[in-house]
Give the backbone structure.
Amino acid sequence: MAMLKETLAKQIPGLREEIAALVKEHGDKELSKVTVRQAYGGMRGVRGLVCDTSSVSPDTGLVIRGIPCKDLTEKLPEEILWLLLIGEYPDAESLKTLQADLKARGKVPDYVWNVLEAMPADSHPMCMFDTAILCMEKESEFRKSYDAGVKKTEYWESTLEDCLNILAKLPAIAAGVYRLRFNKGPRIDSDPNLDWGADYAHMLGLPDPEGTFKKLMQLYMVLHSDHESGNVSAFSGATVVSALSDLYYGLSAGLNGLAGPLHGLANQECLRWVLDTREKFGGVPTDEQLKDYAWETLNSGKVIPGYGHAVLRVTDPRYTAFLAFGKKYLADDEVFQIVAKVFDVVPGVLREIKKIKDPWPNVDAGSGAMLYHYGLAEFPYYTVLFSVSRAMGICSQAVIARAMGMPITRPKSSTTPWIKKAIGA
Ligand code: CMX
């Protein structure tokens, strides 16, 4: 841990100077204009946020600290966490230290289990997961140090403590939610010899004779880790953190947004659509059958889940990575075969609908089929997996924001009469 904190500590003064100079010399220059359509359209494309951990461009997709998604797929989640925070990969020794540090922080307080066990048996797993994070708020090192009057320039240090304390516990909490909510038997203890992603797979308790489910979890955790800061979960989390609420508040707030069907929940909706297809056609459909079913879905006023994106205008490289995993490890699986076929057929259908800006698959189009293959068939749980991973991005962004001394978020809203007057409508 010392190494992560020390490395960050060395970088922060330079980062602050760079930003102060940028704002001093160029503070009044324009980055973006806002049109009426954007104001009524979820602020698409408005450049009003800063995020240095990752970026997402329409034609490239996810790039973490300058490294494109396709080059991240062989890495461990802990390496990605270091990359998000520091801007480069850790060396072998630093990685080991970080992994040992996360293990040391991994014990989940007993009261968390008491809270989860007291929740109604039909609670949504996302609600259970977010509640578990929120109920640990009293552990916040940031809040303790803030109450003790620590200087603003040191806020990032206790935020980093919160970040690591939370991330270390999430796999056990998420696996515990799975086993409790879906009656899978007692919780499984963490394996001290496994890395963060593989240990999560182990604690879920699904059969994994070849160890490929562990590989899938490592990949899954890498691919969902961050997606710049304008998406609902990152933006909500960052907004809450900007009020100097601690990360327990900020992360749970962000993940509540991930629970929405247009965001993280699409993953489960997508698999459902694929399984419906299989049931309807008694196996892998023909291209023509799939095309008809896609039109049937669209004509009934529903979206094709897993397709389209607010920013991307190409196939999501995260989808491409899952497709490659599927081709390598589960080529014979019927559900995976349908996923691959949907990719051949659905973009052509969506392209016929003018208003759809992106007809290509996003990350959710393929991941559910992989989970299903390994026996993780409880759809409402899928967003929890996404959350464990995305927590790395939300928490890293919060540490960097505190290091930069970012102020409270407060964009200006307008009334419709004001907008009409301003544009002379
Ligand atoms: N199927 C049907 N219609 C779609 C569509 C799809 N896959 N994707 C977009 N559209 C529709 C939108 O609903 C919108 O219709 P209305 O104007 O009638 O409301 C229109 O096309 C324009 O949308 P857009 O500008 O192309 O896309 P948005 O930025 O508004 O929305 C997204 C992006 C992801 C919410 C949308 O593509 C969608 O609903 N996709 C399916 C759900 C999904 O896969 N979500 C996962 C997102 C991944 C993530 O959160 O990271």
